[in-house]
């Protein structure tokens, strides 16, 4: 009896060992790769072979958790034997299995069980089947479906073994699914990292990440690598970027975290790039880096062009302010100057030039003319006066400028002139008086900078400017230019005033020695001519101002009109109209001194009424532009309707730009800008009358 029991125990142990061996053989390969369908097919084939079942399949829950999909199948005659790759939860028996998590076994089939087959072609071959859940942590991951050609194929022992196998299979499937999710997440992360890296490297800004504690460079984008010539990742920022022995004084690290160690937000600063010298805007922010490290993310943007545009905008605003001021004061100021200048000339007419008072009047007249020139400089700078453009020989202009300077500057100043042979016949389109004025201003500044002793050189040459030679704030185009250089050996200019030298009213001279409009006027004139101005200076050694004018293909010798001849032999009847009583009296006296018969009025409507009664009593009309009731243009227009061949002259304290088109279209003979000299008035009257006759 005891021997029989021992034999049975040995037999049971052998069976268990065989069962364990079978189970190990079946599950040993599961989970060794991420190709779940291949592994499940191999597992299924081993099950069918080991247990002698006819066919089977493994269903796995879909990601949506609403259906199963066929992950493995074996033992079917063809792929058509698998009815559907997608199997709904509500298919025969599956819902019951999901709810109970227990095997569904049919060892003897009846006609009512045909719906469980899923494969119609197998209905007459299958005698038993079993659906077993694949479970992991109380969740059904899938279903093992097994079919047999024999009845009672699914014994308790077989089901126990299958259940144990499916537990291991559940672990394996979960492992595969988890690894797949991890790999998919890694792939998404890698794609995201690649996209982010591509974006960071393509941004037109220098981007770096620096450890806030160790100052180690953790990241540099390609733009920053290109600027510094090397990727300094892993090195100390203040050492490789700034060449310092310790953290920079301007480092933003102390401001990026609060007392609790939390980021304070973006901190902005501006500075010069240590390599390129360009202006940069630096935006820094504390971020959490890997391994819990706090790092400084810094994005540095080149704002050089923006700052240049801002400077240009400020300059334009200053010019606009000067323009508004010039327009507002020019009329009244020039009217006052006209009265002063006219009365001085009248006083001189009535006395001998040998009279001591005559010289005093001459000094006053010179001062009045200087005031007039200053007003015109303001108008030129503010673009409220229009240059008279025509082809000009720039070499001739330079020569005439030096000739005039020789008569006015100390003999201790050595003048030098150099005109290259290729530009001796070159020409530009411009206004003769304005260009000469700009050269006079530069030369006078140079003389004063040398304190009466030194060398002044004026050099003329042609150059070709590439796009990179043209300052970004200038709108000039590449091409052939005439360059006029005014060089001195004076005191030079300090760096801290270089951005102010073209500002209106800025001067380094003592009070009373300069108006501060010289270089401002030069800049305005150069802008009007579509030119460029550059400055090279060294403190204590001198300065060079370079003026660039676009060349024209139509060179023409400079034509300078001879000064008008003063005469008192003129005759004729003139209607003179101005709303200023003092100017009316002055005009009457000046015209009378020239020999004309004058009717002078302060009311434009009264003048129109008087003229309409007898148009033939007047040979010429001279009218101010800015008047109440009828402006000068309106008055002359009305007079010309009555007498179309009437010679007319329009005067104003403003510039002619605003009314130049109407002056030409109406046939007005001439325009006189106040204040004018008696000789100018005489010349213009004779010219207008002669043109009409």
Structure, described:
Its EC number is 2.7.13.3. Pfam families: GAF_2, HATPase_c, HisKA, Response_reg. It catalyses: ATP + protein L-histidine = ADP + protein N-phospho-L-histidine. Residues 573-689 form the Response regulatory domain. Keywords: Kinase, Phosphoprotein, Transferase. The protein has 693 residues and is an alpha+beta fold. It has four domains: 2-181, Beta-Lactamase (2-Layer Sandwich), CATH 3.30.450.40; 203-302, PAS domain (Beta-Lactamase), CATH 3.30.450; 311-364 and 564-693, Rossmann fold (3-Layer(aba) Sandwich), CATH 3.40.50; 390-552, Histidine kinase-like ATPase, C-terminal domain (Heat Shock Protein 90), CATH 3.30.565.10. It contains 17 helices and 23 strands. Strands 12, 13, 14, 15, 16, 17 and 18 form a seven-stranded mixed sheet that branches. The chain has a six-stranded antiparallel sheet with strand order 3-2-1-6-5-4. A hairpin with a 3-residue loop joins strand 17 (532-538) and strand 18. Helix 8 crosses helix 13 (581-593) and helix 10 (394-406) crosses helix 11 (432-449). The termini are far apart.
Largest sheet: 7 strands, mixed
CATH homology superfamily name of the largest domain: Response regulator
Amino-to-carboxy terminus distance: 161 Å
Number of helices: 17
Strand content: 15-25%
Number of E-type strands: 23
Overall structural class, as computed from helix and strand content, comes to alpha+beta
- Report the C-alpha radius of gyration, rounded: 50 Å
Class of the largest domain, according to the CATH hierarchy? Alpha Beta
Given as residue ranges, the uncertain stretches (5+ residues, pLDDT < 50) are: 5-11, 510-516, 555-568
Mean pLDDT: 80
CATH architecture of the largest domain: 3-Layer(aba) Sandwich
CATH topology of the largest domain: Rossmann fold
> Which overall shape is indicated by the principal axes computed on the Cα atoms?
elongated
Number of folding domains?
4
**Helical residues, percent:** 40-55%
């Amino acid at each position: 009896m005891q021997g029989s029991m021992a034999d049975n125990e040995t037999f049971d142990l052998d069976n268990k060992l065989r069962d364990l061996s079978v189970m190990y053989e079946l599950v040993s390969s599961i989970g060794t790769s991420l190709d779940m369908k291949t592994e499940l097919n191999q597992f299924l084939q081993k099950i069918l072979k080991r247990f002698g079942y006819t066919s089977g399949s493994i269903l796995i829950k879909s990601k949506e958790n609403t259906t199963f999909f066929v992950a493995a199948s074996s033992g079917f005659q063809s792929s058509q034997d698998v009815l559907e790759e997608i199997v709904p939860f509500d298919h025969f028996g599956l819902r019951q299995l999901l709810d109970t998590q227990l095997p569904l076994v049919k060892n003897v089939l009846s006609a009512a069980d045909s719906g469980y087959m899923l494969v119609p072609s197998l209905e007459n071959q299958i005698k038993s089947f079993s659906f077993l859940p694949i479970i992991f942590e109380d969740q059904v991951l899938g279903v093992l479906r097994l079919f047999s050609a024999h009845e009672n194929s699914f014994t308790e022992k077989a089901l126990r073994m299958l259940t144990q196998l499916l537990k291991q299979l559940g672990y394996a499937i979960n492992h595969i699914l988890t690894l797949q999710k991890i790999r998919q997440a890694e792939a998404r992360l890698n794609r995201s990292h690649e996209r982010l890296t591509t974006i960071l490297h393509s941004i037109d800004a220098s981007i770096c990440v620096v450890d806030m504690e160790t100052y180690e460079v953790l990241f540099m984008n390609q733009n920053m690598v290109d600027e510094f010539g090397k990727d300094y990742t892993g090195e100390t920022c203040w050492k490789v970027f700034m060449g310092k022995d310790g953290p920079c004084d301007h480092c933003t690290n102390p401001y990026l975290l609060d007392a609790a160690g939390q980021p304070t937000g973006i901190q902005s600063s501006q500075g010069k790039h240590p390599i390129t010298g360009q202006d940069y805007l630096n935006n820094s922010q504390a971020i959490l880096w890997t391994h819990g490290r706090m790092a400084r993310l810094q994005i540095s943007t080149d704002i050089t062009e923006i700052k240049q545009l801002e400077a240009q905008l400020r300059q334009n605003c200053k010019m606009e302010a000067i323009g508004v001021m010039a327009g507002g004061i020019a009329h009244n100021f020039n009217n006052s100057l006209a009265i002063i200048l006219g009365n001085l000339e009248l006083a001189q007419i009535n006395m001998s030039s040998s009279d001591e008072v005559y010289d005093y009047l001459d000094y006053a007249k010179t001062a009045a003319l200087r005031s007039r020139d200053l007003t015109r400089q303001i108008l030129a700078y503010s673009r409220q006066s229009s240059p008279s453009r025509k082809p000009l020989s720039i070499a001739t202009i330079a020569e005439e400028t030096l000739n005039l300077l020789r008569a006015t500057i100390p003999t201790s100043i050595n003048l030098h002139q150099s005109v290259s042979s290729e530009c001796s016949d070159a020409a530009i389109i411009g206004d003769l008086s304005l260009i000469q004025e700009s050269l006079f201003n530069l030369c006078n500044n140079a003389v004063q900078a040398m304190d009466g002793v030194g060398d002044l050189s004026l050099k003329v040459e042609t150059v070709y400017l590439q796009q990179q030679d043209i300052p970004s704030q200038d709108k000039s185009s590449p091409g052939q230019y005439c360059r006029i250089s005014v060089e001195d050996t004076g005191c030079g200019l300090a760096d801290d005033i270089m951005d102010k030298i073209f500002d209106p009213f800025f001067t380094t001279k003592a009070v009373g020695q300069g108006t501060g409009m010289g270089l401002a006027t030069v800049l305005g004139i150069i802008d009007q001519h579509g030119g460029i101005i550059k400055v090279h200076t060294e403190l204590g050694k001198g300065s060079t101002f370079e003026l660039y004018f676009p060349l024209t293909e139509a060179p023409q010798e400079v034509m300078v009109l001879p000064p008008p001849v003063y005469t008192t032999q003129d005759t004729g009847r003139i209607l003179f109209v101005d709303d200023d009583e003092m100017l009316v009296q002055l005009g009457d006296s000046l015209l009378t001194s020239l020999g004309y018969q004058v009717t002078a009025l302060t009311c434009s409507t009264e003048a129109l009424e008087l003229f309409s009664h007898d148009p033939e009593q007047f040979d010429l009309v001279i009218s101010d532009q800015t008047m109440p009731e009828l402006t000068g243009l309106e008055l002359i227009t009305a007079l010309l309707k009555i007498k179309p061949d009437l010679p007319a002259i329009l005067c104003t304290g403003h510039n002619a730009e605003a009314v130049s088109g109407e002056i030409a279209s109406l046939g007005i003979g001439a325009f006189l800008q106040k204040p004018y000299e008696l000789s100018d008035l005489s010349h213009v009257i004779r010219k207008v009358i002669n043109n009409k006759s």
